[in-house]
Amino acid sequence: MSGGQGQFNNSPRGEDKDVEAGTSSFTEYEESPFDITSTKNAPVERLRRWRQAALVLNASRRFRYTLDLKREEDKKRMLRKMRAHAQAIRAAHLFKAAASRVNGIITSSPPSPGGGDFGIGQEQIVSISRDQNIGALQELGGVKGLSGLLKTNLEKGIHGDDDDISKRKSAFGSNTYPQKKGRSFWRFVWEASQDLTLIILIVAAAASLALGIKTEGIEKGWYDGISIAFAVLLVIVVTATSDYRQSLQFQNLNEEKRNIRLEVTRDGRRVEISIYDIVVPADGVLVAGHSLAVDESSMTGESKIVHKNSTKNPFLMSGCKVADGHGTMLVTGVGVNTEWGLLMASVSEDNGGETPLQVRLNGVATFIGIVGLTVAGVVLFVLVVRYFTGHTKGANGAPQFVGGHTKFDHVLDDLVKIITVAVTIVVVAVPEGLPLAVTLTLAYSMRKMMADKALVRRLSACETMGSATTICSDKTGTLTLNEMTVVECYTGFQKMDPPDSSSKLPPPFTSILVEGIAHNTTGSVFRSESGEVQVSGSPTERAILNWAIKLGMDFDALRSESSAVHFFPFNSEQKRGGVAVKSPDSTVHVHWKGAAEIVLGSCTHYMDENESPVDMSGDKMAELKNAINDMAARSLRCVAIAFRNFEADKIPTDEDQLSRWVLPEDELVLLAIVGIKDPCRPGVKNSVLLCQKAGVKVRMVTGDNIQTAKAIALECGILASDSDASEPNLIEGKVFRAYSEAERDRICEEISVMGRSSPNDKLLLVQSLKRKGHVVAVTGDGTNDAPALHEADIGLSMGIQGTEVAKEKSDIIILDDNFESVVKVVRWGRSVYANIQKFIQFQLTVNVAALVINVVAAISSGDVPLTAVQLLWVNLIMDTLGALALATEPPTDHLMDRDPVGRREPLITNIMWRNLFVQAMYQVTVLLVLNFRGISILNLDHKPNAERVKNTVIFNAFVICQIFNEFNARKPDEFNIFQGVLRNHLFVGIICITIVLQVVIVEFLGTFASTIKLDWEMWLICIGIGSISWPLAVIGKCIPVPETPVSQYFRINRWRRNSSGT
């Protein structure tokens, strides 16, 4: 276990409309509960407020993929209980320790006999770990005794063969915890049926069935009621099927998120395994560690860092984070036998919370729903008034209602039909599926992003990435290949060529050099029986260890001959790490390794060819600094290795004092400076240029030498030329850190490269960029990167080199640590937003056309051309099938030809309004003309069932218009609407299914859908009406639209009214 360019304006949107920064004067009057630009770390009260404001017909479905506020409160309550338990244990042990000091005795529970194949049972070992019973541990012989009972070698680990793993799983359980079973398909059917309008329609269908049978007899009276019930059932089944498939995708993604990879020692080798494969009894006790500091706040609630040692405080709890240092842990509990496992077993899976787009779409759905309810109310009122005033005619042309003559049963049946039409208008008008289209496209996108090496941990990050205006990227492993090799080496007396030529170094010199490398590392070397050498550790560590092996280093022999007394782990703040090593003759060497110019600055001597320390003269210092600069300018990572002697009697003997001892870092003797080559990733320059073209500025923030950073930035295209490499475009972290907040805000947008930066410098840069209105994405891999990852709008951690702390604080994990994958995430983020806009345009066109046609027809003639069953089918096309077809469009290169989407830019753009208006007006005009003059236009004057044929043509033409318009919606601002259509198999499949079902409904389900069979001429007329929408879309796209969004005019007018009223 170890802790381990294009031109840009001064604001992402321009000074005149920096809406995201909140500088537009009218935005302060926006009090909409749906105006949430970021749900990351949003207050619970704010999230509760939009839920209360939303118009919802089916709460269980609408809020399925939003944060469960009650569950979050339960989780916090459980954590408080566990923290109280941990604090009670700590207090009890302090009391017992005090008592033992007074009475001279130690009380502990006696060891109970082990069970099965091991010398200790699961219950006892869990009890010791959970109660942190140091006394019981000591009675077992400490960590060494416990490892013997568990048949675990502290150096080599367990054997790890299948038989051994099976026995351990049987004795101590597996590293999993009980999880709630996924919802069954029938649960989704039940939830889909909770829609208020569908319930009303079912009631209406039952009433219509009863009244129809009573008034018309069983042979004909059951048609209307059963038709409506069947249509409602079809809507429920299709909706439930879509939701069920979506939930399965989320379950698979959650499995990937939980499957953490980590290094363990098995049979003497370091191997990477899944967290589920830890089988020794991830609570544990510390075997050995150096400067190990653990953040236990997730369990205890205390924010202070706890320092661990193997004698007085060895217990480590799962769910806690390593803040500093490194160590080896003997695992004592897995799964539900740990405190964290108990918590996770009691808390069901979190769906990640709602996204800003989801909240905004709930606002849009609420607004449209209110309009729809109003329209439905008007239609209901008009139809009822017309009915009772005798203006509603029957099929024979006579009034349906005649006062004093029409039977009550007939009146009730007619009223049920009127109410059914009004309620069905509500079903079509209230876009209940609109907010759910976000989760549909996110589920699809997240699954596809896994193939693009990106694992989304937080749903909102996927869409927020589409708004990113800047990416602050690490260098090593992200922009470079992370395949490091030592290619140059300088000692104090020569440049070694080749760098691994051991013959050029005196043996005593080599001896002390490899001693420092062997001990001052977090990597390891394993030599198999066949002689094959395997090196593990970070890429830098592997490069130096491989170099030392070529110089003749015997890793195991050096580690066993001498012992590490105290360790100062490398960290990104200090840029160096050190170790005090005691040899068999009691000689103590303090070895240091780290950033070349920093370690060199502490050197007062260098070792010459005679193995004698020589004073570091000014000329020699200048010579070595020039060598460092020369290597850095060639994009080499420069690492210096130095040491000093230290008196053994000055080393603290008390463990507490030793843990606080600061390794001496002055008067060092330089041994070597190595240059490590880490080439740029092949496609990274094109990716950077693609980002710049898309309005996303890429900034490199690295801990490396400023000259190395400059060389890589030039190679990657982050810096266009040497002329750009000046402050503040190229800046050191300490310089940026020294500025005041106002000065940092002033220059932050000009920064392209920050070298020798600490994690805190990265955090300061992120904060400054956010204050300037940028949407910031940040990459990070270290524990110390966690604050910046948390602060950023989108935190991107590295899947290979990233620590678990960094991954937990991030929103997206880049599985291959590749910058190209980051750019793919930007494309997917923009795709999510674009797909939702396509669906909105398509759905609103159907909404407007269906509502206007039925309202105008109802008011003018007292009848509606689209029946309840037909409207339910249209709703199915528009809602579930439309979302599946349009919300799953794959991203295109065209998305990267536009600027980032502002988080407060309107969802419905002027282009969408234009397209919507053109198509809706065409459909309304044509279908209303058919409604009022269709019989004569279609030459049906003397044909039987003329009215039914006309209404069937209206219904058929309306549906076919939607099929053609679905193609238009794919490309709202492009002329070629067919580009890439065959690559989207789901879109093609849904179009085909819709066509087949429409033919079946018209030709074979006439009784249910109130349609009649059409001849081929009528089909051609319907297809002709629908096909006109394609050339009409081309003409419409030639109409220019104003740059100022339509919605902004309403905001300005509201602001003026508010201003005049104050």
TrEMBL record:
**What membrane topology does the UniProt entry give?**
Multi-pass membrane protein
Question: What's a Pfam family this protein contains?
Answer: CaATP_NAI
Outline the segment boundaries, as ranges, of region: Disordered.
1-34
The record's annotation in InterPro entries points to: ATPase_P-typ_cation-transptr_C (IPR006068), ATPase_P-typ_cation-transptr_N (IPR004014), ATPase_P-typ_cyto_dom_N (IPR023299), ATPase_P-typ_P_site (IPR018303), ATPase_P-typ_TM_dom_sf (IPR023298), ATPase_P-typ_transduc_dom_A_sf (IPR008250), ATPase_P-type_domA (IPR059000), Ca_ATPase_N_dom (IPR024750)
Q: Which reaction does it catalyse?
A: Ca(2+)(in) + ATP + H2O = Ca(2+)(out) + ADP + phosphate + H(+)
Any one GO MF annotation of this record:
calmodulin binding
Q: Which domain of life is it from?
A: Eukaryota
Query: Could you tell me which residue ranges the Cation-transporting P-type ATPase N-terminal domain spans?
Result: 142-213
Ranges annotated as spanning the membrane: 196-213, 225-244, 364-388, 418-444, 839-859, 871-890, 986-1006, 1018-1036
Q: Broadest EC class? A: translocase
GO cellular component terms, alphabetically, are:
plasma membrane
Enzyme Commission number, as recorded:
7.2.2.10
- Swiss-Prot/TrEMBL keywords: ATP-binding, Calcium, Calcium transport, Calmodulin-binding, Ion transport, Magnesium, Membrane, Metal-binding, Nucleotide-binding, Translocase, Transmembrane, Transmembrane helix, Transport
| Localization in the cell | Membrane
- Chief localization class? membrane
Family listed = Belongs to the cation transport ATPase (P-type) (TC 3.A.3) family. Type IIB subfamily.
* Role noted for this protein: Catalyzes the hydrolysis of ATP coupled with the transport of calcium.
Query: Any idea what this protein is called?
Result: Calcium-transporting ATPase
Name its species.
Brassica napus
Gene name on record? BnaA03g49860D
